[in-house]
Design brief:
- The chain has 6 helices and 10 strands.
- Helix 5 (about 175-185) packs across helix 6 (about 200-215).
- With about 280 residues, the protein is an alpha+beta fold.
- The structure holds a DNA duplex (16 and 16 nucleotides).
Amino acid sequence: MPELPEVETVMRGMAGRLLGQVIAHAELRRADLRRAVPPDLARVVTGARVIGFRRRAKYILMRLAGGQSVLWHLGMSGRIVLSPPGTNAPEPAHCHLVLVTEAGWRVGFIDPRRFGLVDLVPSAAEEAHPLLAGLGPEPLEDGFTPARLAASLALRRSPIKTVLLDQRVVAGLGNIYVAEALFRARLHPARPAGEIPRGGVARLVAAIRETLGEAIAAGGSSLRDYVRPEGELGYFQHAWRVYGRAGAPCPDCPGAARCAGVRRFVQAGRSSFYCPRRQR
DNA sequence: ATACGCCCCTGGTGGC
DNA sequence: TGCCACCAGGGGCGTA
């Protein structure tokens, strides 16, 4: 579900409301998420002040005074719901963890499919957490360069689409934004990664940056489960050029008569979308 | 080392 | 209306 832009949006929403607040109360409703939630999580966070937020790949890290960070992952169907003090809305189904601050803000972690997770990690060693340790570069930071991506793609015969989904190569892309970035870079998703020439890799880096940047500015993409922490929708789904648009005319082929339109096919068990005329 | 299928889990949708 | 197959923003694990 949420890819980098959605996770970034959720993280910013949490930071805006929760930074500086003290957690007064925590209730773990069920611990059998993708990884078992630590049994002492509620005890550890209770009484702690929230002092920082950051995102790494599709993970949110919420740093607490006292030296621990809460690590969140939303999986496919996870949501964070922030409710202001005094709200009395009924609790949504599949709410697995609730935090309440001293000021009365409620933080709910909702995840029907339970592919998400919540964990604790020492703040001083966040990057050593087993789920973070092997992650590749952040695509919006300086370390993600054409030279570095080219080195990761070299000699790989797998399709570029599946290589870009590998979080060790670049961190934070998922099925939607890979499709959109490959379209913008005019690269066919089945192209063997190691065969892409220098110029193509450079276009790809630029396309990934642009796509993610625009999606963050739009608050992410809302289709099924994803909403922002205070219920607003993202609207980048209206800017999709190929994802979910099989059969539609390719938006960038001038003179649609010679363009058969967007096609869908399956790679590694997941849908890929592309324009056969524009992407090679 | 790399690549692929399978699995985790629930809910929505469309066809019969 | 009911049932069923299929699909979905992720990712880890076991096997070739």
